[in-house]
Amino acid sequence: MSYEEPESNNLMSNPRLLTAIIVGAIGLVSIVGCVAIFFIFGTRNQPPTQGTKVIQVTKIPTSTVTLTSVPSATKQPTLDPNKASGGGGGETPTPDLTATFINRPQTRAATISEIKGSVQIKSPIGGDFTTVTTNVTIPAGTIILTSEDSSAKITLTEGSIIRVGPQTQVKIDQLGGTTQNPVTKLKLDFGKVWSIVGGSLGTGSFDVETPLGTASVIGSFMGTETNPTEELDIITCLEGLCKYFNAKGVQTLTTLQQLIVKKDTALSAPTKMDTVQVNDWSP
Fold it and tell me: SS in 3 state form for 53-96?
């Protein structure tokens, strides 16, 4: 019995297959080599990256002139450090100049009106007496003089009225205080005046000084007459409360009472006004 020898599987026996394997190996090596060369030499020869340079732009100066604020006359509120540290802090309020001006007390003056007969006035700055025939406003210090059968009315700013009788000389000696608290003082040299206080005097006063003493009206109607020839004062209180005082003492009068005062004589008690005095009283 004979046996056939099997074919050999050795690669060396197939030249085509061997050639293909060699060519493939060479190609693979070439590809790997190229890749390696690229990474090695390609990165070395790469040009350096240019850095970023930041340029700071300088602001162009403007030709516009900056205006300086004009200082204000009104004070700004300022913090009081004492109040602030004490727990009751706050701002010092700015004074309201407008309100201050509006609330300023009104200056008092006197106006002559209802002129009858011959009425003259003398300015407080001096000079001679001048005759008045129309209403005129006069300041404190003015002297009013009436002739026989003459009279005038004087109205004060707050509304009080002084009626000047015939043959009388009286000086508006003082117009002080405010309209709420007026201080009025007359100096009666001779003759007669009637005073009407047109409201509350507040803390003010209304006095008529004579050569013998001073009469004061507290409210509201008082007549004062002085006679230098007889050295005599007669005070009438038509309504309200009046007072008279001099070196001899003080006496109070009430409604419809009169007081007759003689020089160097103690003050007597008031008596009742008679009908003539009531009718003579000029409101």
Answer: CCCCCCCCCCCCCCCCCCCCCCCCCEECHHHHHCCCCCEECCCC
Indicate if the pLDDT at residue 175 is higher than 80: yes
Closest to 220 (Cα-Cα) out of 160, 158, 153, 175: 160
- Asked if residue 86 is part of any domain, the answer here is no
The domain tally of the chain equals 1
Distance between CA atoms of 116 and 140, rounded to whole angstroms? 22
Residues spanned by the domain of 184:
106-280
Is the residue at 38 inside a domain? no
Residues 29-50: pLDDT tens digits? Answer: 777 666 666 666 555 555 555 4
Q: Residue 24: how many CB atoms within 10 A of its CB? A: 10
Residue 178 covered by a domain: yes
The answer to whether residue 162 is domain-embedded is: yes
Could you tell me the two tokens for 157?
């700013």
Asked if residue 1 has pLDDT above 50, the reply is: no
Contacts of 256 (CB under 8 A, 6+ apart): 237, 238, 239, 272, 273, 278
pTM of the predicted structure, to 2 decimals: 0.63
Are 135 and 158 a contacting pair, CB within 8 Å?
Answer: no
Q: Kindly report the CA angle at 205 between 165 and 153, in degrees rounded to 5?
A: 25
Cβ distance 170 to 164 under 8 Å? Answer: yes
Give the CATH number, domain containing residue 126.
2.60.120.1440
